[in-house]
Design a protein that fits this description.
By secondary structure, the chain is mainly alpha-helical. It is globular, with a radius of gyration of 31 Å. Among the domains are: 1-125 and 403-551, no CATH class; 172-384, no CATH class. The protein has helices at 2-12, 14-29, 42-69, 75-82, 85-93, 100-123, 127-152, 156-163, 196-215, 220-239, 243-257, 262-295, 299-334, 336-339, 344-364, 375-382, 389-407, 417-425, 438-471, 475-479, 481-493, 503-516, 528-534, 538-573, 577-590, 595-612, 615-631, 636-648, 652-665, 670-689, 693-717, 734-746, 750-757, 768-783, 789-798, 802-811, and strands at residues 180-183, 186-189. The protein is 74% helix and 1% strand. It has a two-stranded antiparallel ribbon with strand order 1-2.
Length: 814
């Protein structure tokens, strides 16, 4: 009786409803903050910092609940403690990280994940709480889908007006930026994520979740609620133009249905087929509406799109309601005998594999089936192969991630390690601050210890869940399978992309993981639990302490962000040094690890120094720079500022040394090679002016040595697979050519000088550097008895003095 009373109290307690209310608000609010993308810079952080604060408040509520409701009796209770090993491993890796700022943020983010794990664990203990949570997750997800559809049909301003009051990161715009994106691949629907592939992963989870909830529905209201969303979700999925999602969807589908009884598998597949047929019937007209609306809004066209979509959604809802009410129960009754046999679990999935192979043949073979799709989607499907850039590039990411991991194998390089270090290990000059694989990115961040801990926790949750799921029956028990669907969809798709760099999706994942085993009754056996049970109050007490610590830290980070934004605003409207640095100094004291804050202060100090030549400003900038480089040694912008300060003080030798050091850390950054060659050439020329031939030769040889490295790198790029793009430009620049050409000219290698200088002669002649290159180029030609009369006339017409300058070079003795 006591336990039943407690369960009843839970449903109506103030704490329960406060926790549920805040959770639902965050599920609605978070997607519209660019899905809380962790971009490791100032632009994305404010909403994430707000999430820190709300998570701390939620953890405080959980800790109070835990004082009364938590006991160490079940393995799920034990996992509610073990989940904190995830932020602990991130904390350990943050002690000596590649980026202090990113590593610290990931400690906070994993704190958020652990908190939401406990939210799911406590909210979903009773069936009423689980039902509330499921409807909250799905309902908030459906809002995201409708928001995307509104943007697709051209109602961008209206869609944004609805969410503008809480989508604070974009308050200065009249539309939600990049909800629709047009690029070389066509017009893509990205909704709140601003990234089509992540939205596709989210839609897979929503699609399979809604199909499953329809298949187990006993109430027509539930069938209608979820059924009406299936077609909009499936349409949106295709509109993302995500090839990876198309490829991975069948895999996720199989992993979802394989654990269902055969009668549920058939129901699930039946609804999938019906939804697919209806979707294919309207896909082309709905696609064309969005493509045209991007060019120019047309109200009549938008109405056509809405009418088509809503009729299709109502049609599927009606069919689903009829099937669920009259057909499915009879089919399931006839399949009961088969469903109880273990082999039955694999019959339908095996048939699904065969069916999938047939569909793949129809899509990828020369069958004409692809002509049913709109042109942009047809082209994306036609381009699916293992020799395309996106596939080959991902393979490169994964190899490079393993190279990075090999240097930080035990505890990793901290949160944001890939973003901070990938340029050191990359095979070619691609640009990707994400590893496009959650598990590999996790591995490089926390090392093998943290990775193994995460995998053990994950597998334990999955094992406990499936053990409970297959021993239970009834609608309330089976509805919990939707947590598994959502979690496994995100996890599997995250092997191909950076879905879980969106903190919102991470919250969904951990919320579902906690809810999956909330009602698990697998008891812990052994006497060791009794000694812990005596001090069961210690865990809730620890949660109280953690919540308070993280609350005040989160508030401090938010205040720092506000002060920095204030400083930026002051810089745009005021030239008063103190007006800008006042709030900026507060921001830096509140968040001393932030490189963006430090860079802003450094730039202001250097500007003032250049104006006043007051050494105090330079020294202060140098001090901040030195301190920040200890925390962010791989921050490319900070390194540039360091080289700038050395140049300002004429420390060219030190600048050259630092540049050469950083070439090892940024081997595909051509600007560093350029800087090194130019500095070596200048230092060699300075030595020549001092008649120090030995030093001149040393520096000029060094420039040529760096050039040899560039040549070797260019040769490496020629070995890339045919379908893989190299990424950023990596070739000899005109300025490099000028410096190397001068060296070869001085050494009397005029043919080599000509080849180098030719690189820059076609640049704009209005540029002083270009005229200098042409001058040396024409001189090298004269030395060989050659001429380029047209170029000579063009140069002299621009500046008649160049005639004498060329002759001076020809007559010069080096």
């Amino acid at each position: 009786m006591g336990n039943k009373a407690l369960a009843s109290d839970d449903k109506h307690s103030i704490l329960f409803w406060l926790l549920a209310g805040i959770t639902l608000l965050i599920l609605i609010w978070a997607p519209f903050q660019r899905a809380l993308f962790n971009g490791n810079n100032f632009d994305f952080e404010r909403s994430i910092f707000s999430t820190f604060v709300w998570s701390a408040i939620m953890l405080l509520l959980i800790s109070i609940l835990a004082f009364y409701k938590w006991n160490l009796n079940r393995w799920s209770d034990f996992l509610s403690i073990m989940i904190w090993l995830i932020p602990i491993t991130y904390f350990i890796s943050s002690i000596s990280p590649a980026s202090k700022y990113s590593a610290t943020n990931m400690v906070f983010i994993t704190f958020v994940y652990a908190s939401f794990y406990l939210v799911g664990f406590f909210l979903a203990k009773q069936d009423s709480g689980s039902s509330l949570l499921i409807n909250g997750i799905m309902g908030s997800g459906y809002l995201v889908v409708w928001f995307g559809i509104m943007n697709w049909f051209g109602h961008k301003e209206t869609a944004y007006a609805i969410v503008k009051w809480f989508a604070s990161d974009m308050a200065q715009y009249n539309i939600y930026q990049h909800a629709i994106m047009a690029d070389d691949n066509g017009v893509r629907l990205t909704s709140v994520f601003q990234y089509g592939n992540a939205y596709a992963a989210f839609l897979i989870a929503m699609l399979l979740g809604s199909l499953y909830l329809i298949s187990i529905s006993k109430k027509w209201t539930s069938t209608v609620f979820h059924g009406f969303m299936v077609i909009p979700i499936l349409i949106s999925f295709f509109l993302t133009l995500s090839r990876g999602a198309l490829v991975i969807l069948p895999v996720i589908f199989l992993v979802v249905i394989i654990f269902l009884k055969v009668k549920k598998q058939l129901t699930f597949i039946l609804y999938t087929i019906v939804a697919s047929i209806i979707t294919m019937a309207i896909l082309s007209p709905v696609t064309n509406v969005g493509v045209e609306q991007v060019k120019q809004y047309n109200g009549a066209l938008a109405m056509k799109g809405w009418t088509t979509l809503i009729i299709a959604a109502l049609l599927f809802t009606g069919i689903a309601a009829v099937l669920q009410r009259f057909v499915v129960p009879r089919v399931e009754e006839k399949l009961n005998a088969i469903s109880n046999k273990k082999v039955s679990y694999f019959i339908i999935p095996a048939g699904t594999v065969v069916l999938g192979a047939i569909v793949a043949f129809l899509l990828l073979g020369n069958t004409g089936f692809l002509n049913l799709f709109p042109e942009n989607i047809k082209q994306r499907i036609e381009n699916i192969n293992f020799e395309q850039n996106s596939v080959l590039e991902r393979g490169t990411f994964y190899k490079d991630a393993l190279k990075l991991y090999s240097d930080y194998p035990v505890v990793g390089a901290g949160g944001g390690a890939w973003s901070a270090l990938y340029e050191k290990y990359q095979n070619n000059p691609y640009v990707s601050r994400q590893a496009h694989n959650f598990f590999l990115q996790y591995l490089v961040e926390v090392g093998i210890i943290g990775f193994v801990i995460f995998i053990v926790i994950l597998l334990s949750i999955l094992w406990l869940f499936h053990r409970k799921f297959h021993n239970d029956s009834g609608e309330n028990s089976s509805s919990r399978y939707v947590y598994y669907i959502l979690a496994i969809s995100l996890l599997i798709h995250s092997t191909l992309d950076f879905d879980l760099s969106f903190v919102y999706l991470g919250i969904l994942l951990f919320l579902c993981l906690g809810a999956m085993i909330a009602n698990n009754d697998f008891e812990i056996k052994g006497q060791w639990k009794n000694s812990i049970q005596k001090a069961k109050w210690a865990y809730p007490a620890l949660l109280v302490v953690l919540s308070i610590i993280f609350f005040f830290n989160g508030v401090q980070l938010l205040n720092a962000n506000s002060n920095f934004e204030n400083a930026r605003m002051q810089a745009s409207i005021s030239k008063n040094f103190n007006d800008i640095t006042g709030p900026l100094d507060k921001a830096m004291s509140q968040n001393p690890n932030h490189p963006d804050y430090a860079l802003f202060k450094i730039d202001i100090l250097l500007q003032v120094y250049n104006q006043t030549k007051d050494e105090n400003y330079f020294n202060e900038a140098n001090r901040i720079l030195t301190e920040m480089l200890k925390k962010e040694p791989h921050n490319r912008t900070l390194i540039d500022r360091e080289l700038t300060t050395l140049t300002l003080k004429g420390k060219n030798k030190e600048s050259l040394e630092r540049t050469n050091q950083e070439i090892n850390n940024f081997p595909w950054d051509i600007s560093l090679y350029e800087k090194s060659i130019v500095l070596s050439t200048d230092l060699g020329n300075t030595a020549q002016d001092k008649n120090d031939a030995q030093e001149m030769k040393m520096y000029h040889d060094q420039a040529l040595s760096i050039y040899s490295k560039v040549e070797a790198r260019i040769k490496e790029l020629s070995l890339l697979p045919k379908g893989q793009l190299q990424g950023r430009e990596f070739s000899v620049t005109p300025i490099m050519g000028m410096a190397l050409g001068q060296i070869q000219y001085i050494r009397g290698h005029y043919d080599a000088a000509e080849a180098m200088l030719r690189i820059g002669v076609n640049e704009s002649i209005d540029n002083q550097t270009t005229r200098l290159i042409i001058r040396w180029y024409l001189a090298s030609l004269q030395k060989q008895g050659k001429a380029d009369q047209a170029l000579f006339d063009k140069l002299v017409a621009k500046d008649p003095n160049e005639r004498q300058e060329i002759q001076n070079l020809v007559n010069a003795k080096f």
